[in-house]
Every structure is written in structure tokens, then in C-alpha cells.
Amino acid sequence: MAYKKILINNRTLTERDEKAIRFFRQSLPPNDIEIETGEHGVEIFVRQLDVRYAQSLAVKAQQKYHTAIVADIVQAVEAIKSYGLNGKKRNFVDYNKERKVKNRYKKQQKRGQYFYARNHPFQKENNAMPPEFLDKIFCADSEIFLTQLPDNSVDLIFTSPPYNFGLEYNQNDDDHRWEAYFQKLFSIFDECVRVLKYGGRIIVNVQPLFSDYIPTHHLISNYFMEKKLIWKGEILWEKNNYNCKYTAWGSWKSPSSPYLKYTWEFLEMFSKGSLKKEGKKENADITADEFKEWVVAKWSVAPEREMKKYGHPAMFPQKLVERALKLFSFRGDVVLDPFNGVGTTTLVAKNLERHFIGIDISAEYCQAAEERLRRLV
Ligand SMILES: C[S@@+](CC[C@H](N)C(=O)[O-])C[C@H]1O[C@@H](n2cnc3c(N)ncnc32)[C@H](O)[C@@H]1O
């Protein structure tokens, strides 16, 4: 039978929520709607629904169980604007032919959902970040500096490591041999994994490298999976042809060895311990429209056009950070960028009322980052 699937994320379900959902489900005809709950949130599989009747059930559920979970479910179904009418019922069958899989959650467990992250060593207890580190920029080598931060104290790391192909950074030599480069990078990431909270996330922006045939995003992903983080997903950042101006074709008009060109970069995302992140609902600041648009994992965002103004050759744009922070963190969370450059992550975190910690090895970039925090641009 065909169903439309909707996902309501980021909920910690209480026993009352579960009871209210059961009451709602049992008050409706058997094949109209299925609701599954688990670590992935609330998943709704809807074929058809009498929305007015469902609303009256939501009111009853609220009175009986003191939770708005059913109202939220009904609202999510109501938000689907494409449906047919079948008497009083809205019919979603032709909208999306996705099939309901019975006992989906149990089956996922049995198949070995994120098997590579099983038996992880992470403690569940999180720690507060000492105030002396909060809302500051630090000029330091992250490998050394991060050792001062407590375990399990950062909610979200958003970063873009140095590219290592000779861009003109002003302080450190960005042309290391690859093996040494990854050794250094992974020892900084070791610290990142340690300081992340249980349920915290790290998002790494990486370019597919067309020189040297090094699939950096795969190597970085393998590293995090070996550390037993859960791969939460990958966002394709479409920069719209920005990098395609070069005219090196490889073997022009011959299959012998053409070069591939990339108009995009990746955001690789990993969770520590759990895919679900703790946070209060009132501290979520993403709108319904933003949520609907941004969960589609291809983001068309123009690259930063004013790198010269800030004096940095490899910045990412504020819009990219805004999306990531609103979709994956709550207001008041601690956001860290261990390669903070001229402070795009820290600026956006401040503007979005997150706490921030920015580290960069270049004193000049750190000054620029502080200046941006003062001027808020
Ligand atoms: C790709 S850039 C990040 C730019 C940043 N996203 C922005 O928008 O300004 C990488 C940064 O890593 C810094 N870096 C390189 N090695 C470092 C280290 N060991 N510790 C801290 N920062 C480092 C470089 O100075 C550079 O600014």
C-alpha cells in the first residue's frame, strides 16, 4: 500500500507522548496512517486522513495526556499541500509512492545499522565548557590548544581544514606532503572527537581534489568511522561552476585521460554516540520553510566573493554556516571551529546566539576574526 512519509526530528519522546500517539493511532482506521517512533524521531506514514477529525483527536490527546505531540503530527500532515479529496479525507497516495516497511526500526537494527560505530568507547555524561573558553578567538595550533578543553563539552564543530595544495595562507606552510598532512589533521580531529558531546556533531567542509588523485572526503570519512562516529550524512554544496574556469582538459577530446571538474564541495557530517542531539524545543530557531528546503541535501549557495576584503584565500560563505548551524544546533549550543580563518563560523554563531570558540594558527586571521565579531559582518 502506498504511503506518504514524513519525519518529525529532534524529539525526545516521553511516556505520555508514546501513549498519546497510541491513542491517536487506535482512533483512526487501520490503513490510513502508521506512526513509528525510535532514535530517528517520529516517522509518519500517511495514506489518507480526515484532518478535522484528527484535529479533534489532537485536542483530546492534549487534555488526556498533556502533550502536544499529536497536534504536531496533525500539523505536519496538514502542511502537505499536495493531496486529493476522498469525501472528508485528504488522500496522499498519489503524492508519493513510498512503501511502508513493517517494523522498520527493528529491521534496521537487525541489518546492522551503522555497524562500524557499534561498541564505541564514548561516555554519555556531558560537561559544561569552562567560561574562560567561551565566545573567544584563540591564536594557536589547534593540536595543542584543544588539549585544554574538557571531554564532551562541544555541541557542534563546523570547519574547513587547510586545503594543502599551496594556497597562499599567511602563516603556515600549506604545502606539506600528504601523509604528514593527514597525520596532523587526524591528530587535531582526535581532539575534536574527544571534546564533542555525546550526540554532538562534527561537520567538515572538503573539496574533492582534482589534483593528486587524493579523495580527501573519503579519507576523512574513513577516519571518523574508524573512530566509531556515526556517519550522519553528506551535503553537496553546489557552488555553481565556481571552480570550472580552468582550461586543463587532460586529454582533450580523447578518452585516454580526461580531467573531471567539480562545481561542488562536500560537507561530511558525523555524530558522536547518538544521531539524536539533546536540546530544548524553544531553542530551535529554524523555520518550517527553511527545514523543508535544507533537509534536501544539495545546497546551492554562492561562494564567498569578498575574500580579498578579508585577506583570506579560502573562506566559506556565511550562508553555508547559517544553514548548518540552524539545522544541526540549538540556540545556546557551543560551536567550535578549529580552523577558524577570518572567523566566518564564529561570526555566524554569534549572530545566531550560539556560544563559539574559534582557533586559528595565524595571528592576522585571528585579528580579522575579532574585528568581524566587533562589527558583526
Ligand atoms: C580553509 S581555511 C578556513 C577558513 C575559514 N573557514 C573562513 O571562512 O575564514 C583553514 C585555516 O586553517 C588554519 N590552520 C592551519 N593549520 C592550523 C592549525 N594547526 N591550527 C589552527 N589553525 C590552522 C589556516 O591558517 C587557515 O586559516
Structure notes:
By secondary structure, the protein is α/β, with parallel strands linked by helices. It has two domains: 110 residues, no CATH class; 259 residues, 3-Layer(aba) Sandwich (Rossmann fold). It contains twelve helices and 14 strands. An eight-stranded mixed sheet has the order 7-14-13-8-9-11-10-12, sandwiched between helices. The protein has a three-stranded antiparallel sheet with strand order 1-3-2, with helices on one face. The protein has a three-stranded antiparallel sheet with strand order 4-6-5. Strand 13, helix 11 and strand 14 form a beta-alpha-beta unit. Helix 1 runs antiparallel to helix 2 and helix 10 packs across helix 11. It is globular, with a radius of gyration of 23 Å. The mean pLDDT is 89.
Provide a compact summary of the structure:
By secondary structure, the chain is α/β, with parallel strands linked by helices. 32% of the residues lie in helices and 20% in strands.
Task: Please indicate the count of domains.
Answer: 2
What is the CATH topology descriptor of the largest domain?
Rossmann fold
Shape: globular
CATH homologous superfamily label of the largest domain:
Vaccinia Virus protein VP39
Which spans of ≥5 residues are poorly predicted at pLDDT below 50?
none
Strand residues, percent: 15-25%
**Number of H- or I-type helical stretches:** 12
Helix and strand pattern: EHEEEHHEEHEHEHEHEEHEHHEHEH
Strands of the biggest beta sheet: in what spatial order?
7-14-13-8-9-11-10-12
- Through-space gap between termini: 52 Å
Tell me which CATH architecture of the largest domain applies here.
3-Layer(aba) Sandwich
Mean pLDDT, nearest integer?
Answer: 89
Q: For this structure, what is the CATH class of the largest domain? A: Alpha Beta
Query: What molecules are bound to this protein?
Result: S-adenosylmethionine
Radius of gyration: 23 Å
As a percent range, the share of helical residues equals: 25-40%
- DSSP, total strands: 14
Structural class, judged by helices and strands? alpha/beta
* Oligomerization category of the chains in this entry: single chain
How does the major sheet shape up? 8 strands, mixed
